[in-house]
Amino acid sequence: RAKAQGGGGYVLFDRGMHEEALRRLDLELDLRRALEKEQFEAYYQPIVRVKDGRLTGFEALVRWNHPERGLISPAEFIPLAEENGLIVHIGRWMLRAACQQMRQWQLAFPRRPALTVSVNLSARQLLHPEVLAEIRRTLRETGLSPRHLKLEITESAMMENAERAIELLEALKRTRLKLMLDDFGTGYSSLSYLHRLPIDALKVDRSFVMHMHERAEDCSFVETIVDLAHKLGREVVCEGVELPEQAALLRSLGVEYAQGFLYSRPVTAAQAEMLIIEDAQRGR
Ligand code: C2E
Ligand code: MG
Ligand code: MG
Ligand code: MG
After folding, report:
1. What would you give as a GO molecular function for this chain, any one (predicted)?
2. Tens of pLDDT along 155-203?
């Protein structure tokens, strides 16, 4: 939409572009203050065991309660935070919030099998020199056992610096937490790395699950990933499950875990607690 003007080489922005640039700048300034103003909130989306639909844990997903714009989706501000480095601070806050919350639930519901919490780690965080020490400290200070923490790392974040990522993942594995490869299938080079990555599970991206029930190729794709994962001794989580038909297919393919609107949208901590109680009642 920017028009280069003749030979002068300067660029004229149209009104729409100008407004977009201002909006972005505004958002960035607000984002810088959002942490101190406590505008972030952790939402929780259930992850269920496919074979019986039982609750096994939650993925923690950040939400921004903007005073004027309302709830802003991470799709809008995470890329911005990645660029300007704020993601390191937001991620640190999320990790602590999620670990604290899970520890609290475990203490509140001591009789049910322990739930796990999954936290997303961005590329920027992965390459941060203090990340390992910080994760260890957070576990120690919140009292959550590393066995109950899962870190989700996307294929593309991993590939930004694969050698370095593998080293860090190996160090993380030694602390005995679980590692998940997020949005699997959307990156490109990881197939050749898969056997070298010390990950516990693959999270198959929603874009493949979405059409499984109506497109045979998509179903074959998921089937192939599941077989590969199982042959390598990894488990599989499918994200974006919205329909019972999709869940039935996942069951027939032997997928271990599923996540999606069929079970629940991401909800507040208080609503998540109700889901824990409901699940406990089903189990008796
Ligand atoms: P993700 O880690 O792949 O998280 C799954 C996303 O899929 C979530 O979007 C979730 O709400 C959405 N989802 C789950 N089930 C369904 C479904 O059945 N249908 C549809 N249409 N969508 C579903 P959300 O919460 O908007 O987060 C988007 C992305 O933002 C996440 O993708 C993750 O990459 C990033 N993100 C969220 N929270 C954090 C965070 O604390 N740190 C970092 N680094 N990234 C985060
Ligand atoms: Mg994730
Ligand atoms: Mg994902
Ligand atoms: Mg995704």
Report:
1. cyclic-guanylate-specific phosphodiesterase activity
2. 888 888 888 889 999 999 999 999 999 999 887 655 777 888 899 999 9
- Ligand sitting nearest the alpha carbon of 97: 1
Among the ranges given (28-42, 50-64, 177-191, 224-238), the one the predictor scored with the smallest mean pLDDT:
177-191
Atom of ligand 1 at shortest distance to CA of 154? Answer: 34
Q: Residue 142 carries which side chain, given as an amino acid letter?
A: T
Contact residues of ligand 1, CB 6 A cut-off: 45, 61-62, 73-75, 78, 87, 91, 94, 120, 122, 152, 182-183, 206, 239-242, 259-261, 266
How far apart, in whole angstroms, are the C-alpha atoms of residue 250 and residue 233?
A: 18
> Which residue's CA is the closest to the ligand 1 atom numbered 46?
120
Q: List own/partner pairs for 270-277 with CB under 8 A and 24 or more apart.
A: 272/44, 272/46, 272/58, 273/105, 273/108, 275/46, 275/55, 276/55, 276/105, 276/109, 276/112, 276/115, 277/109
Report pTM.
0.93
Choose among 96, 74, 94, 60: nearest CA to 27.
Answer: 74
